Amino acid sequence: MSIDDFDQIAIQDTCITPEMEQEVAKEDYKYYYVDKRYSRPETMEYYTPPEELLMIGAGKKNPERMIYPLDGPYTEQEETTYEQLLEYFEDKDTEIPECMTKRRALRFLNGNAFNVKKTYKNIVQHLEWREEMKPFILTQGDMQLLDKGFLYIHGRDKNFRPFLITNAIIIAEKGINPDDVFHTSWFMCHFLIENILKRGSVENWVEILDLGGLPISKIPVKALKKFMIESQIHMKSRIAKMFLLYVTWGIRTIYAIISPFLEKRTKEKIVMKKGGFTPNQENFVFNEEILEIAHPSQIEEKYGGEAENLTEHWPPISISDEYGTDPECITKSSSSTTPNTHKRPSRVHQEAVGTSSPPSQPKHFITDPILPTEDNEPDIRPAPVAGKGKNCTCTIF
């Protein structure tokens, strides 16, 4: 489907759920449209991430797991603390909703350095927050921000991680509502996890924060700090890398104010670039680092790539079938017709942390009608069931 056809979008081609259907006008369907060619590139279905992407800092005290394989294996520490977490919920006489799968629970455990008590509080806090946020109905202000290109998704890197671009100067425009800015940001996180990532193989994104032309006086420092803190509470290991472009001395000063509230693992992913042109005015000085992780066809010209700069920013659509992925990570054979869903065991885990024990089953899960179970695999979803989601079920991040 091309941009010119967006007025012909059917609801089954969107991420609109039954609870949203009555609140979303047909002319607004384009804001919920999911381009299958972009959301599920054929090659990505046969992609297995390299071991070094599964976990950052394997063998260290607090490694950060970036990908949670569908069938494991998981480390002994992960298996042990997961069982302890289940027991802690039981001791608190708190039922675990069905949506809090083992993979989700492990994500929160890892994000809390395997502290069971902190993880319990974090999960309870997150579930309450998620119930308040859902469903994600875009306001007119949200849609205007998407049209302006404040936030947009463009291309994928060599490991199929999508690029999330923030055009920060938009927040300096007169009449922009800060509430819309943050609600749009949460919607974008939800949209990425729900529709663009793939469980067990592509679970993070790369952020490009374009600060070019943003007046320092227009940066909402307090609100920004609040959002970044909340992101760390609810978004566990979702950002693979963050490029901050056109970073001035003033922006570095503001970062110094905010950075004490950021986790160490978050700060280690941030790459600050001053920006600007090279003497021949042809290439940006920061293009090499971005192009190290992505094929040029996936990156806009303004960031050093070969793709045309967007004039229509939403919804995201496929721009190129070239990704530059390591052929060893693609398991499709000439006779294969079925994607490989079996993930190879992690030698990194076994050597650095010890041999993992077999995945254990949850002791008890109950159905939560407000927060459905995880499912961001649109190509293999079962037929719609009355009262349940159509082509897209909402996740809880």
From TrEMBL:
Domain CRAL-TRIO residue range list: 153-311
Superkingdom field: Eukaryota
Ranges where the record places region Disordered: 325-387
Biased composition regions of type Polar residues, renumbered to the chain: 331-340
Protein name in the entry: CRAL-TRIO domain-containing protein
Protein's organism: Euplotes crassus
